[in-house]
Input
Amino acid sequence: MNAPLWPAVFGRFGWMDLPFVRAWQDPSVSEIIGAGAGGLVVFGGLAVVVLVTWLGRWGYLWREWFTTLDHKKIGVMYVVIAFVMLSRALVEAVLMRMQQAAAINAPGFVAPDHFAQLFTTHGSIMIFFMAMPFLTGAINYVMPLQIGARDVAFPLLNAVSLWLTAGAAGLMMVSLVIGRFSTGGWTGYPPYTELAFSPDVGPDYWIWAVTLGSIGTTLSGLNFAVTIYKKRCPGMDLMRMPMFCWTSLCTAILMIFAMPPLTVATALLALDRYLGFHFFTNDLGGNMMNYANLIWLFGHPEVYILILPAFGVYSEVISTFSSKELYGYTSLVIATMAIAVLSFTVWVHHFFTMGQSANINAVFGIATMAIGLPTGVKIYDWIWTMFRGRVRFSVSMLYSLAFMMTFVLGGLTGIVLAFPPLDYLVHNTLFLVAHFHNMLIPGLLYGMLAGYNYWFPKAFGFRLDETWGRISFGCWVAGFYLAFMPLYVLGAGGMTRRSQAVFEPAFRPWLYIAGIGALVLLCALVTLFVQLWVSIRNRESTRVPVGDPWNAGGLEWSIPAPPPEYNFAVIPTVRDRDPFYVEKEAGNAYPRPKRYEPIAMPANSMTGPALGVLGAVTAFGLVWHMWWLAGLGLAASIATIIARSFVRDLYRIVPAAEVGRIDRRWRKEIDRAKPIGRAVEGTPANRGLAEVEAA
Amino acid sequence: MPECSVADRPASRIRGPGSRHEGLPRSPIRRLLRLVSAGAPLLLGGCDVFKLGVANHAGPVAEAQWHLLLIVGAVLVFVAAPVWLLTPLIAWHYRIGKKGNVYKPKWTFSWPLEGLIWIPPTGIVIGLGFVLWHYTLALDPYRPLPSSEPALEIQAVALDWKWLFLYPEQGVATVNQMAIPVGRPVHMSLTSGTVMQSLLIPQLAGQIYAMAGMTTQLNLAASRAGSFRGENTQFNGLGFQNQKFEVLALPGEDFTAWVARARAADRPLDSGAVDGLMKKSVPPEPILYSSVPPNLFQTLIARAQEPSR
Output
């Protein structure tokens, strides 16, 4: 190919952008790890394609999953993305910990450039492509069931959100195989990420992956908020909603208001990099302080976007596994709302050290401490929920207890960081790293895993294995303490975050302990998959077709497990908080409908996957300056949206006869099942029909 | 080349909290402790890390920060203790299957408890708010330290991947070595010739960002002689982990001698030298410059804002 044609077609791509070529030319351990990771993506992708083809399941996947608008399946796919991305980002974390343990007055085995990509992808993935999909998936699955709805308010938009997130996650994976990722950290601070300092494709991968993901999340937020406002079943007043719906609502509101600053920040940075603007450059009047404000105007509410849904999960789990109604419901609602509002008033604490006046720092420091108040109230409300209850130490409950103990510690160090004079000392050190992992691992990951163990039987009709669940739980908790407590110490000793090598022998023992902790966390991930595998293998003995394995109070437990496509054969009417408890006590848990009506459900659409793939293709074209590809992708996206507006068959009608047949089959299961007490809920006797407990 | 090495300074920073393991009385429990610590040299060595941080403070700013940390830490342990005690106690006491427990599934509210979980924490936050406000103003990095002596002016320029320190009054400059006189306050002005960086000397004071085209300030002082580690804490590229510098806190006459040695170095910081420093590099040793062009700091601020291409 002659010279001018190559850049026109392939943009700035060259053979050295392939990790395999780089590893061939420079077979260092660092490059071989890079090539290995790229190879894993390629062969993993190929293996999945071959497997699906061999099983002849493409049609099934396309009809039942890829094109579905069912909020439950979309929720499950979100969680699958979260697990895949969690695996990658956790392995990256282990690599970094091993490197730091190996690189004390030594080069270690990961080169500085590779190390910088590792901490950038680890952070970006854990926030945008692990945490966000996990909680979005949980809300997607559970919230409509809890409010007695058949789907979210905008099912197509929901699919578009999913596929934009999937496209962005795909772009992250592609960056392992073609080119390199940003080295600018998960917040991508300019001017480092500007052309003058990072002319390569890395920051562009980061910009477009985050932009695609953030658009998907904004749309999700709108969807969830409208669903909660408009789709509640009769009788479901706002103050009767399960706590998880309240935290979902607050998260949705935060998504709507907090994601746009991020999209704006990445868009302005893109303008700088692509069109020669000077928003955040050093030269020609740019100012990176505007970026710091924008990204943290998103970034701090983001913390609560991540944590609030987990708070909702804990509220459900602790109430259910204490066999008790939630203590202080109103207090919890007020506290949740207070957190959501306050979360917009503290962003400056992420850069106390930028030189603003002491008065400004003091105001934001005090606002930061104030957030501790409603959070503390929540913890006490959960403690009083257990008080005079009957606590069962199920896997979900264990996560909740570990969360309460651990999260408080993170709160303490958070208050330390809220004091500007103390923040000056430990900002940008491993103390900070320890703090936010101390918030997000208990405050997000434990919550999502508690929810995963709690709602899995609802979604798939069988319970997860308790033994392996406990082993995994033990590893997550022990691993967390081993990996992150030393980081507090190291931070107090002034060890900076993002260090590829270390020159203080005094750090050695603590880095070793942290390294062991990282390996234990890796075991936690492996045992999590073992738990899933064992559970699938033993599924016949853990089936809960009736749908109420934990004797819980929410509407989601009043329907079969797994629920039918339309969720409720008849839309329920709610009389009180914990509506299913109320009906169970009244002996009216499973009222027979007088007659069945046909139900209109949203018909499948390929708009979602099309937009997701085209979005990723456009982004890929932009990253590599393949302008024809970006233009094509954008034009095809617009064409897809126009084409969708001509589709007339938007609904699929489930005939009344089919609804009746499915419902009657379920009622046979109810009749066959024996109500069981809580003492035997972990045994095969548990078919999902709960014995009403005497108070 | 290094005119002043760490070795010829009294190593006064050994007095860390870790050293209290030495010289314990010989009670059986202490003996057991000794055995354990002897068997675990890793853990014993672990205490050295505190010698590098604010726990081993060497100046009035870091000392005040350390005191603040102790105050806040004490209050916080008091705040968190109820949760750490109640969570396991209540969960275990009310476990299913334990006989004779009260079971009240419908009990969901109590005004006294609500008061207990809202009011005392609010009081504590208000109290801490006063502490925070006081210390934030008192330890404002821009606030000059009280002293009878005028502060020593140092201008720090963040470069890739090193620090340039200009001494405008003395007319000398250094790379990766910052000498300061013990007991005399130091006023630093910071800027960056490249991306944003952050200057931290954990044993002396907190950090402040250095940004191109802008000036930030930091006031600090050393109360004892010694060599302390300074660093950039904001990732700025592939040499980031190497971007450490030494702070030499020297008694007054030694500082004068240090300045004299720098002036005698016969290495002016001319435009060629400045251009060399602008290139990305990690200097293996600290460098002393015998003279500095006037207003170099302002020149570098202006230079950082010039069109780069």
Remarks:
- Chain A has a mean pLDDT of 95.
